[in-house]
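Record pair follows.
FIRST:
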Amino acid sequence: MRLPLGLRVVGTARRLLGGSLAHLDPADVPAARAAVLRLQHGPLGRAVIGTPPRDVVVEETVLPTASVPAGLTVRVYRPPSTQAPAPVVVNLHGGGFVQGDLDQSEWFCAHVARAAAAVVVSVDYRLAPEHRFPVPAQDAYEAVEALAATPGRVGIDPARIAVMGDSAGGNLATVACLMARDRRREGREAPAIAAQVLVYPGVEMVDVLPSERAIPVAPILSAADIRGFHALYLGDADGTHPYASPLRADLRGLPPALVQTAEHDPLRDHGERYAEALDAADVPVRHTRYLGAAHGYVATGGLTPRTSLQAVAEIGAFLRAM
């Protein structure tokens, strides 16, 4: 299916405004990231992201973790009529491990909270290149761990925890599941994660998958961007490590998964091969490819409401079932 006109316009505007942070020298990323955030927080950026439902209560707090005793900032979304202890969904935003923030995921998290009848906790994890692999992955896991250990902080049920993420956040969400599984295998305490929602995740840091060659240029993300973000995230680290490239991991014993992919996305084969790998490892998995969609659709609810709301409805149904 053809891409919607709005997305084609966004892609053109993005290229005219200077393209992606993925190709910058690491020293130049922080200033460029701040400039992108200023645009995102302006009227045009808010119109693209969309307006969250007004009946979802939003509050911001700090969650101390093992690696960040001073705490990571988290944003908590409570749907109407949810009573404690409530199921919780821990969200990790996208942005190539290099950019993105809590505002980027506000529309998505608020809508998922309503659709799933669950509290959503969105985590402002530390970003590369200032904090390279494995720091963002550790932040993701430790946020889940901290919520499970102190459920009273946000009124959640530690027996009903799911993780969710889009793009780089999808990588971090499933890596958090791997870390929890591995700790249990070692006989250590670890949170029980009941489900994982992975929206167009990136799961392979070294090999170039076919969709990256078939769709080299797309409105939100190009194949070259993928490689640039990976270089900024990894630095000198080994990209074949399963916590960097979960497609290479032993996936047995992971929680049930919903994997969503977009037709016009160079990351498409990442999610689709990961869904196949989960199935081969006897992990219950549902995969949906969204036709006519491009990378980033859960962060463009104001621009692509039909696809975005359909994706949220599927996520809500999956999480309620889990």
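SECOND:
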Amino acid sequence: MAMAAVDAAPARAEELAKNLFGHEPLPAALPAKSYGFYSKGCFSGGVAIPTDGPTWQAMRLSRNRRWGHPTMIALVEKLSRDAAAKDGWPGLLIGDISQPRGGPMLTGHASHQIGLDADIWLTPMPARPLTVAEREKISSVSMIKKKGLTVDDKVWTPAHMRLLRRAASYPEVERILVHPGIKKKLCDTVTGDRTWLRKVRPFWGHDSHFHIRIGCQPGSPGCKKQAATTPGDGCDKSLAWWFTEEPWRPNKDPDAPKARDLMTMASLPKECRAVLAAPAPASELAATYRGPGSVTDTGTSIAAVIEQADTIDPEAGAPISANAFLPTDGVKIPLPQWRPDE
């Protein structure tokens, strides 16, 4: 019995994965790959969206959660540009995307672990750049009436609908999570083409922001796909359920530990150990997503960095000479054509 207790001790003592991933300041300098599922995994080759752009500003910078798979970051920038140019949306305020190497977070989300999720505030970007302090303190505005489940028409505008429609228009986007009241508002008011409503799914929270989720990307065979959305526009009995008592009943066990408080590295895909152990790029600037012709902090163009990057030893599963800008397998990333000065 004593020997069994000794053998079990290391397993019980293994550090929580959230503590390991939550304290990594930079991404794994490996090819861009997602491992596992959105709520149980990690990713390598992450890039950061710049804190500021012509049509976006990143919020809550202290969290260090503006990292994602290159396809995710490219899509967020594209959404910001398209919404500003075509839909009358002044610009995006960007919430959490992922930690530099993904994995379970110290606080907050259960998902956002594999670089393929992003939160966008439903508050439009102000005309002036927000200070760092403002980005930490300003709250997003709820679209839902106080103590209610339906949209407050004093804050909801047609531009909100156009922004969500724009996000749903991209083939990479598989789901957009919103408060049930927002989904109902769309069901009640959208005319013409309603096929995009299929991607918009009701979920708890999400009254002041929406959650974009893209699918597993080529070159990530270890990424677990989510189930397909059900046929139709979702304006049916599945939506009506959210306006019954059942979804809002108090949690019977509010003190039960959350998944992130139990996950150890043994809970995650085995590749996540290599992701955690991989070297980091030279700096945050070197791993920040940018357009053609920009340079890293060493003065080397990103194209040159990619060209010079050494390969990964497939037998060892570890970098020989790793770089955060190794190309994403089988993916051509759309790059923005303009970048504000650093």
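COMMENT: The CA atoms of residues 171 and 267 lie 31 Å apart.
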